[in-house]
Amino acid sequence: MTNEPSEIVSQYYHALYSGDLTIVKDLMTEKSYMMTLESFGLGLSFKDAVFKSLLKEIEENNSSLLIVEALLSEELISRNKAPKIEIIKSEANGDARQTVHYTEDEKMKRLYFSKEETGWKINYYAGRKVD
Amino acid sequence: MNKSTSENNRRGFLSKMLVAGASSIALFSSSAYAKGSRASGGNTTPKLTKEQKDELFFIYQEEKLARDVYITLSEEYPEENTFASIQLSEQRHIDAAQGLCEKYGIDISEVNEDEVGNFVLPVLQGYYDNLVEQGMKSLLDALEVGVFIEELDIGDLTHAIEDLGMPADVINVYENLREGSYNHLESFQGAIKIASS
Q1: Is A30 in Cβ contact with B7 (below 8 Å)?
Q2: Ranges under pLDDT 70 in chain A
Q3: Residues A12 and A74 grouped into a single domain
């Protein structure tokens, strides 16, 4: 994938609220993807003890991961959300990192990106300013 | 693939701890934080890798998440002292994490520590929004949110301590933060017992 980070932001939100976690996974580093599942799965985990226990083992157990992805996908679709994303600017942070500043329903947000072997990926850990 | 293995261990400790049960966790006083600060002084600052620096910056932001949730929940449940007392302790956690960032030259200027409940990173905003929404349902739910946050912190701190080859001063501070989180976890578990009896 050769998309620029600013393009990926919109793709990420569209895929997320369409419940297409395969695309979401492709747009992020593995660690960030797992954190995304944990963060967005939180509401479901408080309602459903089985989901909560599955969510806790997604990094070690692939079958748990697949079940979590399927259930969370349905839940994300049911939110019927399509936040309005407006890109403000992209900011280079060294050669292999970028920060995209944007608004999500008019709230200022940032997503951090790192350049991986397969292209730019959302990476929550890439926000630190490099020298 | 080493990186991937390391990433996959992030919450490994948490799973083990949940299986073993948290009842045997020792209590530690807040003076443990001071111990971490003293241990870091005097020597030449070691050089951190990119991944280690990223972790320091992220943990600083994650400590803010815990404090902000507790501030919000303590306003909702002023009769429950656990939130208010732990929120003060979380500020010390933030200060300790900030101290490490400063020591290692990590720019934290874009994090507005004073803006409670606002996070520029969507994943942290997602955590905050979901945790507060859940905590607003009832006092018992709010205390369960506290347990969740402390377990999350313990898992991430354990990853930073065990998997990233951090220097001794960082490990010392993080071990003290983790001890504090164990203490908080026990407090929330105790409060849950009282609230549900």
Answers
A1: yes
A2: 1-2
A3: yes
More confident residue, B27 or B130: B130
The Cα–Cα gap between B33 and B179 comes to 9
Domain of residue A60 covers 5-78
One domain, residues A58 and A118: no
Looking at the structure, do residues A21 and A42 belong to the same domain, yes or no? yes
Is A47 within a domain?
yes
Is the model's pLDDT at B88 over the cut of 80?
A: yes
Cα–Cα distance measured from residue A99 to residue A27, given in angstroms and rounded to the nearest whole number: 15
Task: Inform me whether the pLDDT recorded for B7 exceeds 80.
Answer: no
The verdict on A114 and A73 lying in the same domain is no
Per-residue pLDDT at B122? 78
A27, A33, A39: best to mutate for the B interface, most B CBs within 10 A: A39
Cβ within 8 Å, pair A124-B121: yes
- Contact indicator for A28, A123 with CB cutoff of 8 Å: yes
Kindly state whether residue A95 falls inside one of the protein's structural domains: yes
Q: What is residue B20's predicted lDDT score, i.e. its pLDDT?
A: 33
Taking Cα atoms as reference points, which of B164, B171, B175 lies closest to residue B26?
A: B175
- The predicted structure's pLDDT at residue B43: 58
Domain count, chain A: 2
ipTM over 0.90: no
How many Å apart are CA B69 and CA B117, to the nearest integer? Answer: 7
Q: Is B28's pLDDT higher than 60?
A: no
Residue to mutate among B51, B112, B130, with most A CBs inside 10 A, is B130
Cα–Cα distances in angstroms (integers) from residue A35 to residues B6, B8, B23, B74, B163, in the given order: 15, 11, 27, 26, 17
